[in-house]
Structures are given as C-alpha cells and as structure tokens.
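QA checklist item 7 of 12: single-chain prediction sanity check.
[x] sequence parsed
[x] length recorded as 128
[x] structure emitted
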Amino acid sequence: MRIANPFRQVLLTIFLITIALLAGCGEIKVRAGTPVAPSLLESKLIIGQSTSDDIRQILGEPNGLGREFLPFHTQPRTVFSYYFEESQVSLSSREGDARRIFVWVFVKNGRYDGYLWVSSFPTDRQTP
C-alpha cells in the first residue's frame, strides 16, 4: 500500500500506534440473563399444581428447554433452564472473574415438579 501524501502517512502511523496501545487497556464487563432466586420459586410455585404457563409467567421465558431422565425416575421430565452471568476481563492482563447462576425447573405431566439451583456468586455461599 502506497500513501502519496506524507501527512497521511504520519496520521496513519499515529492512528495505528494509538489502536495498538488502547487494545491493552481497560476491561470488558458482561452481564447475561436474569438471576432467579430460590425464594421466588419456593414462594410462587407449588409442586404438582403450578403449570408450565405459571412458570413462564413468574420466571419469564426460559433460556433453554429440554428433557431429563434420572435412573430413579419412572419417566422423563421436561426441563426449563435459566442462566445468569456477570463477568469481567482485564484487557491488559487477560485476567478476570466470572460468576454464574444456573436454574433447572422440572415439569412432569405439565405440572411443576421442583428445581435445581446452582450459584458461584460469593454472596450465595454458606458454610455448613
């Protein structure tokens, strides 16, 4: 690539150096999904009575929909999955921190059948 004007060449050089220096600065913050608190599930949903529509109304549309079948069950269940993440990455050091909440809500024969909630947020940790 040939730049005819020396002034343009200087500007291009300054621009490229600036971009190279800025690429190593700052941090990226990511927030995805909506957190689901176990207290919400326990206070608003009733096992065997609440419907799939009730779950959607209380928690919103799930991030995923699937099936699960554990060896001690007599039939597969539908699973609504919910996900929440907060993370940040430093562009200068490539270090970062990520915290997530996963919630799987189980539905059997169209009715709420319980949930599994997993969190890596420090505020959710309890010592036995």
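[x] summary fact logged: The helical segments are 6-22, 38-44, 52-59.
[ ] second reviewer sign-off
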